[in-house]
Amino acid sequence: MTAVLSCQGVRKLFGPSVVLDGLDLDVAEHEVVALIGASGSGKSTLLRCVNLLEDLDDGTIHLDGAHITDPRINPDLVRRKIGIVFQAYNLFPHLSVLDNITLAPVRVHKRPAASARSQALALLDRIGLASKAAAFPDRLSGGQQQRVAIVRALVNSPRLLLLDEVTSALDPELVGEVLDLIRDLKADGMTMVLATHEMTFARQVADRVCFLDAGRILEQGSPEQVLDNPVEARTQQFLRRLAPA
Amino acid sequence: MTDGAPPLSAVQLDRIAWRRRQSIRSILVAAASTAVLGVLLVVAVTGAPGWDRVRQSFLDPTIAADALPDILRGLWLNVRLLVFCAVGSLALGLVIALLRTLRGPVFFPVRALATSYTYTFRGLPLIIVIYVLTLGVPGLRLQGMPSVLVLGGLALVLTYSGYLAEVFRAGIESVHPSQVAAARSLGLTYRQAMRHVVLPQAVRRVAPPLLNDTVALQKDVGLVSLAGPIDAVRAAQISTAEHFNYTPYIVAGVLFVLLAIPLIAVTDWVTLRAARRQASR
């Protein structure tokens, strides 16, 4: 079985600082991989590189066996197969919830507006936000906005969903509703890579946890293995500082 | 809201009564201070030693009535030119702003041209542009040369689109990069992201300064009279020379203010609405 996502020797520099330092990562179909690590360890940068929002300084990334970091390919075609959800939601403030979701299906995938709308409404209904379809994002709570952002990424039926610290900007009481949605997606078999600070959540939803340190995956394995019995001193130190998670 | 609510407490009723008394007092104070200032101004102006001479040469009703038709005819020209120039410079300004945001090496000359356009026409005095277009260009004696009026309007469009392009560009750059990232991540191309995500937000944000420039344009359209066409100010000037009296200028001035009021009101309304939208997030 070929991996859905395959990163080899990924290197990314921001000026003089090395953010990703020859990172390797394979993600199989239906697998959920959690990236953990301190701020600045390269979690978000890796996700942005996979979505081609950043250019690599070395290495390759393959999606379904196709080389996507070849500068000759059209990045727009690749992005259509990858969904990404950002820490700050990044909903479009001038569009209603429904229009936020249907923008890409209608404009990018050239689907008829009616079918895109009914699919969007069905997805909104599933997350309990059908009544907010006509509302503008600024009228929604953070948790509601983030769930809309996830639906917006899902409506294109991506092969791979990237979640970049999607609960970091939320009040603790709103985190649960977003995490529930992600658990549902896992049950549906969605392949996901998520950067997270929620160790409890990583433990519950991830098939594999990767600890990033200094731009590399220092340690990886099952949640129990990495979170409960870390081998590397750096991992132990990181988890200790998080205290009772 | 009202039904089912408990009856108001004595403290709240007292509060409401006190607030009402306060607002009545405020209105009375405002009225009194306005009246005092108004009387003082009238006394100061009409009591001035030269008031009679000034009134004769600036505020003569018969001359005003005599000059009004010509000035109105001129004003109609201003209005038509304003509409033409406002639409033209908004469209051209937007195109130039978009050209400046184009990326990729192919577009280097386009970007450079658009940039030098905004530098040139914001730097060049409007009067010189009007002279060059209305006096210089017809001198070429090309076939199908448009009228001086159209050329003058074109001069205004060229100058104002330079300003408006920069306003549009400021709006485009004010949209946070994360919005473009979100749009691109959904698979939208650069152009689609611009069209559906960046521009709608940018135009909303810069609507107040755009309308502000349109109000300024309203006064500058009269400058085409340098080339011959008779606008309201030029008509007032002719009338002033005929009567040896400045009243026509005052008439034209009042008409300009009246014409500007709706535009300025729209500007204020749009600004207020934008502020409310910002406050609601």
Instruction: Classify the helix fraction of chain B into a percent range.
Output: over 70%
Which architecture of chain B would the CATH scheme give at its second level? Orthogonal Bundle
Shape of chain A: globular
Chain pair sharing the greatest interface: A-B, 29 and 19 residues
Q: How many domains comprise the coordinates of chain B?
A: 1
Biggest sheet architecture of chain B: none
- Would you count the extended β strands of chain B for me? 0
Helix content of chain A: 25-40%
* Secondary structure tally, helices of chain A: 9
Q: Element order, helices and strands of chain A?
A: EEEHEEHEHHHEHEHEEHH
Question: Can you name the CATH architecture of chain A?
Answer: 3-Layer(aba) Sandwich
- Helix-strand makeup class of chain A: alpha/beta
Spans of at least 5 consecutive residues with low confidence of chain B: none
Structure description:
- The complex is a heterodimer of chains A (245) and B (281).
- Chain A has 245 residues and is an alpha/beta fold.
- Helix content of chain A is 37%, strand content 24%.
- Chain A has a single domain (5-242), classed as Rossmann fold (3-Layer(aba) Sandwich), CATH 3.40.50.
- Chain A has helices spanning 43-50, 75-79, 97-107, 113-126, 142-154, 172-187, 199-205, 223-228, 233-242; strands at 5-14, 17-27, 32-36, 58-63, 66-67, 82-85, 160-164, 192-195, 208-213, 216-221.
- In chain A, the strands form two sheets. Chain A has a six-stranded mixed β-sheet with strand order 6-7-8-3-9-10, sandwiched between helices. In chain A, strands 2-1-4-5 form a four-stranded antiparallel β-sheet, with helices on one face.
- The longest helix of chain A has 16 residues, at 172-187.
- The two termini of chain A are 35 Å apart.
- Chain B has helices at residues 10-46, 51-58, 61-101, 108-123, 126-136, 148-174, 177-185, 190-220, 232-243, 247-279.
- With 281 residues, chain B is mainly alpha-helical.
- Chains A and B meet through helix 2, strand 6 and helix 3 of A and helix 7 and helix 8 of B.
- Chain A: GO terms for molecular function: ABC-type amino acid transporter activity; ATP binding; ATP hydrolysis activity.
- Chain A: It is a peripheral membrane protein.
- Chain A: InterPro entries: AAA+_ATPase, ABC_ATPase_HisP-typ, ABC_transporter-like_ATP-bd, ABC_transporter-like_CS, MetN_ABC_transporter-like, P-loop_NTPase.
- Chain A: This is Polar amino acid transport system ATP-binding protein.
